[in-house]
Amino acid sequence: MPKSATKENDQDAIPLLFTLTLADDGAPTADKKYIRIPPSYRMTLMRWILQPGTLAAINQAILFTNYPEKDKPFERHTFHAIKFNQDPQLLCAYCDLLLDRPGVYEYYVKYGPDLKNTSSSSGRWVVEPHIITRSDDSLLPMDALMIQSVVPKWMGPISDWDRYFNFIQYAGYNMIHFVPMQQRGTSNSPYSIADQLTFADDLFDNPSSVSSEQRATLVKKTLKHLEQTHGILSLSDIVWNHTSNDSAFLLEHPEAGYNLHNSPHLVPAYELDTALVNLSGELDHLGLKSTIESETDVNLIIDYIKHHTFPDLKLYEYKILDVSKCVALFEQRLIDKDATGVNVKKYRDQQVHLLSLKQQAAFVIDKKWISNGKPGTRFPKQLDLPSIISFILAVNQLDDINETSKHDIEQLSKSLQILLDECNLPWYKEYDQDVCIALDNIKNRMIFTRLADNGPHLGPISKSNPLVETYFTRLEQSKSSHPPGSFQLANNGWIWNADPLVDFAGPGSSAYLRRQVIIWGDCVKLRYGSGPEDNPWLWQHMTCYTKQVASMFHGIRIDNCHSTPMHVAEYLLDAARKIRPHLYVLAELFTGSEEKDNVFVSRLGIHALIREAMQAWDTHELSRLVHRHGGKPVGSMDEDMTWKLVTYDGELKDIQYVQRIPVSHGSSPRALFMDCTHDNETPLQKRLAQDALPNAAVVAFSDCSIGSVKGYDELYPRLLDVVGEKRQYAEPDTGIGIVEIKHKLQLLHLQMSLQGYGEVHVHQENDYLLVHRQHPGSQDGYLLITRTAFSNNASTGISPIILRKSQAEFVFGASLKVDDLNVKNDAFLTGLPSHVDPLPAPALVSKQDEKGEYIQVVLDDDKFTPGSIMILKTSIGNLYEETKRMVTQLDNDVIKGLNLVDINVALYRCEGEEMEYTGGDGVYEFPGYGKLVYAGLQGFMTVLEPIIINNDLGHPVCDNLRQGKWALEYVVHRLDKYLPQYPHLQGLRDWLDSRMEKVKDMPDFLVPKYFAMTIQTAYNKIYQHALSLMSPLVQHDLFLQQLAMTSVQLLGQVPSTGLHPTESNPSLAAGLPHFTNGPFRTWGRDVFISLRGLLMVTGRFKEAKAHILSFAGSLKHGLIPNLLDSVRQPRYNARDAVWFFTQAIQDYYNMAPDGHDILNEKVLRRFPKDDRFVPVEEGYQYTSTIGEIIQEILERHAQGIHFREYNAGPAIDRQMSDEGFNIDIEVDWKTGLLVGGNAFNCGTWMDKMGESEKAHNKGLPGTSRDGAPIEISGLLKSTLRWIIELEKAGRFKWTQVKAQDGKIILYKDWNRLIQDNFERVYYIPKDPADDTKYDVDPRIVNRRTIYKDVWKASKPYTEYQLRPNFCIAMVVAPELFNKQHGQLALQLADTTIKGPLGMRTLDPSDLEYRPYYNNSDDSDDIKVAKGRNYHQGPEWLFCTGYFLRACLLFNALTPSQVARILCNHRDEIKKNPWRGLPELTNKDGAPCWDSCFTQAWSSSTLLDLFYDMIEKKSFV
After folding, report:
1. Which of 146, 151, 1203, 1501 has the fewest beta carbons closer than 10 A?
2. CA distance 215 to 204
3. Helix H or strand E segment including 436
4. Is 1427:1414 a contact under the CB 8 Å cutoff?
């Protein structure tokens, strides 16, 4: 195997794994429809990934690709299946494919039952070829190609070519592009090929004695010699679009072109062309000038064509209906009373007599009564006579053809004539437009070819030299079996701004009639049809031609690719690649659009597109081209920070590790960046001649394949005409022009390409253009300084050239001086007299400023004149290697002592938390970007991740990092303030400090990259360490990891609050950024809804237990606090919180390793037994076990709870009305259900209190839910069921409670009472006839098959509102629900109240539905002012977890459907800057900016779901 061009190291043997994540239906995303896989000697694999829950992933997807199976040939239209490997629990999938064949390939995905569904689009990828240089048998990077274009007819016989090969080799080129070497037609243009299978006569010494086969052998031998002796590869143009107009085969196979027989739509264009040719020979006779001297002369000819030629031709007859003929036929049918097919009544019934003339014409056209006949004939349109007779009679209100008199017939015929004239009108207008455009194009072409300075100046007009080029080749064949019109063939050409995917000679185009084609009069356009069956001989002939070229040359350049039919190019390229699999494909492609470029590139597997430096009109535009094609920006982050060495987890054998390369973006075509092509004007013509040197230098410094045309280096003065030029190249001389400098530049280009100098910085200022090309690893580089020589240069100097923290070494400098603007010998092709002055080294002055040391490059302006270049070698010394090692390595010892609360500080801490702890220092703010969401590393990673992926080095964050070291210091110094309480952070702080000090020593332009690498290294290590401290379950999937890390976000320690009034300890925030500190951080209800998922599922049982014990000790009135306030002045205004609390204890009992011991755990009680409020110092006087706490809760509720909140009034709630402070809860002993609350308070999680005096809703709850909320009933039932089980197991000693009336209630009786009544009081049956079986008022039922939201509400209609709360009851007490009823209710919820992320808190059909929450709304709308509609439609995410758990319990949704629903949540947590799930959204998932951006229970209930699915396997 050939050796690699890159440095050998251990990783050279590690396979590359490119990973491509597909869209929902298995299609590539819009930006990744085309990707290219660069050549490598390492094993290369492709992995397609279907994300969990996507349509394709949940439906047994199969990938189909035309990448050939092992030992089978490639067939573009043959696809085979590759099965995806699916994770049965997470419902994600992937498949791998080993890529060991170059070529262009396609894939698509099918899925669903019987694979009926297909991805909306296919994707393509190009496996790039291996280009091997025989000089050292090494793999040449594609960007290392240096190509020179030569015209073989100017080189003489191939026996004498070695002198040119020596010259080209010396100049540094490693590939030669030969313009077509095949036999040329009479025009002598290399691109007008007369015989595709025979090489041109002038390539051989005695062509008459050399057969076609011998010629091919000689050419092949010459090219082999070129490769083996000179180490130069070869590339040939290939011309598929046209053939010479004198190609012999056209007489035998005129069907190969677009002729008047197979393309009769061209007849009008041919007649016009013939008329113009004939007119060209009659100008003098007509008194018009045949020698054009002015535009006036042109206008006179155009005027004649307009008023004589076109009228005489009557070309409109090829478009229209023959009205006279149709009227005559019409009259005859009426006279004959021929009613065949006539149905007048049909149109009488439609009252067509009321239609205007225009409407009648539109009616006829719409009915398609006028059809197209044979194209290329006059009056081709045909009329449906029976239908038109029916219509005309109806229009004239006649019922029967037999009723028509002679007078009627005359009137009806006149009526028809007027109608048909109206129908013809659009075609007349189209013709008028054709004429107008044609006249304009004829005029413009005459001006260009006869008068324009840059035109060909064709001379006097004659029939043989017509006024414009002829559009058709007219062959003469006296005896032929071919049909008439076969030998009139359309010539080829091109059209400005045309759609390259449209055949401009096809039947749908008027380009030839309109004279829009810039014609090549010596070339006949080839007509391939839709496939080989349409033109067998042509396809076979061009396939032979293509195979011959591919067998000889290493690459091909597709001439006029944009006009080549796509299917033709695909077919012929497939044939070429069968001959030479590693064929290099280059294209001349000018579509005018990157998108269309990519269509050609992706379908044809084009490896590079030609891009032209000479198209730049000034230095700024040249800099833009270099920036675009020159390489990645210096300091790029993507490769270093997204490529990962990982353990291989696929099915291919014998692979242990892979380098995983995520495909983050689709590919762009590579560029072949040419300083000048054989189609470009020269520097002397476009700029100043001395610009040849700086122009060549900036191209050579681009990280892409580069090229030039022979003659550029020698300073040819003008663009050479490949058609008319007959001189040959002069004797090669390496001492002329810029050849010596080109030699150095190209050696440098090759060296930089081989060594991986892939990053480029471009700076332009006035006429100075600087290109700094660097290695992404060592940051060693070469700096090119040029001074361009555009004719419009306004030289105003350049700012000081500064190299910070770098060393520089002079390589060479040169200045091109042109001695004369005329060549001395014009017998041969020679360049301008010139010389190159070597330039001395510039002064490299060491200086220092507030940013540190730097070198200033001082140029001598008197010597560094336009046309000069200077090259310096730059280095940052050994700083790179040391720094990269340091910033990418973090030993486990540094972070192994960190616990999850330490990690909360290291990764997170929002503004409120950070400011409280640090005494005022908040999160970091980047000017131009804004504040980060976290002070910790996550805050930086949130903004850095897209910068890394997109290499967005112009981002304001990167600007700030380059300008100063503020962010570097912030990252370290914020931890200093935490160290006294978080000593475990010392190691991390010191690691960051040492690394940031190293980063500070880097040059400014590298600071963003190395800062990002430092942050990423620390972040990834700490993140993984955090996950290692949690349960194995959360390691299962990225989404689970992200959800689990929200527990680290939200559980932290702040000075102002905690779980104890006198001790600072970690507490769970309800959400960020609104619930960060003080009394509003920790809410009883939120904590215990979140406890199972965030703390138990993640394995954080210690923290879970701490919250249980704290709230247990705060029990008062039989309730736990709504707002804990560190148990200082807690509020007891939540009726539901205590039941979520008991549910959490139940979960802890069942899940925690010490779960059974929790019941005996003792807690100090904050308040005395009589429920008096006492100061902290007077509290905590007695203890209770958790078991006793549970019993107390049940006892207090059984006896009824009635109290007024302590300190009721504005001191604790400025919005509450007086009655709202009264808390009342009782058991309805007929049903066992808890009934409580009133219309002025809101004791459940739907707790928004009206606040607007203006809207008169202050003190009025948005959602009071007084009565028996369904979720409380379910939670109560769950608690009773559990303690009955505990009692049976001997772990709970109580069996009863005493009711308010003194009656003893056994728990088993209370439990049964709820079980027996639940369905009756909550369910609303489908059939109204069943209403008598339930507690239903049919008058206020809005929906059926639902469960009431509450029972015994003060406002009865609120009972019947569909809300998601019933799902909570279903999850905790599924035994309460009839299975069928539960399914129906959940399926209805799925279609009515399930949103993209959250559950709608109210049925959209409800009159009170208001789905947009805006807390600052200051309107007078009582429903929404001050956000009173918080729970009246906005979509809450925590409800989704309960809903999905319930759906799986009741088989209302399948696991696949659940996984699909969660796709949105996966996307949300990935893109959410807070890396969490929000509290709520507005309608249909729209962002709600007043909500918390990461909410504890939003993540928690989804962790609950995954625990049930994976750990408990309760739904699988």
Report:
1. 1203
2. 8
3. helix 406-450
4. yes
Task: Please give the structure tokens belonging to residue 155.
Answer: 């080189």
Convert the pLDDT of each residue in 120-131 to its tens digit: 999 999 999 999
Q: How far apart are the first and last CA of the chain?
A: 51
Distance (Å, whole) CA 609 – CA 605: 11
Quickly count: other Cβ atoms within 10 Å of residue 725's Cβ. 14
Which among 471, 489, 469 has a CA at the least distance from the CA of 251? Answer: 489
Neighbours of 921 (CB within 10 A): 15
Integer Cα distance of 156 and 178 in angstroms: 13
Half-sphere exposure of 607 (CA within 13 A, CB side): 26
852/1000 Cα distance (integer angstroms): 10
Question: Burial level of 827, CB count in 10 A (0-12/13-18/19+)?
Answer: exposed
* pLDDT: which is higher, 777 or 892: 892
Q: Please list the active-site residues.
A: 559, 562, 679
d(CA 1257, CA 1422): 6
Residue 1021 to residue 1044: CA distance in whole angstroms:
16
CA distance 288 to 286: 6
What are the pLDDT digits (tens) for 1016-1032? 999 999 999 999 999 99
Residues 548 and 215: their CA atoms lie apart, in Å, by: 12
Nearest to 512 by CA among 304, 280, 274: 274
* Cβ-based neighbour number of residue 398 at 10 Å: 18
- 922: phi > 0 → left, psi -120 to 50 → alpha, else beta; which? beta
Give 31's pLDDT tier (boundaries 50, 70, 90): very high
Cβ atoms of residues 1390 and 1447 within 8 Å: yes
CA 323 to chain centre: 56
Per the listing, tokens 């406002």 go with 1355
Q: Dig out the tokens for 857 from the structure.
A: 């490059």
Q: What is the pLDDT of residues 1454-1511, one digit of tens each?
A: 999 999 999 999 999 999 999 999 999 999 999 999 999 999 999 999 999 999 999 8
DSSP label of 91:
-
**H or E segment at 1346?**
strand 1346-1347
Sheet holding 801-804, edge to edge: 801-804, 852-858, 843-849
Contact 1026, 1045 (CB under 8 A): yes
- Structure letter (DSSP) for residue 985: G
Place of tokens 């209930």: 1501
| Residue 511, CA distances (Å) to 311, 340, 436, 1225 in order | 20, 42, 13, 86
- Compute how many other C-beta atoms are within 10 angstroms of the C-beta atom of residue 703: 25
Which segments of 478-585 does DSSP mark as H helices, in order? 536-552, 566-579
Here the tokens at position 1470 are 């990935």
Helix (H) or strand (E) segment spanning residue 1271: helix 1270-1288
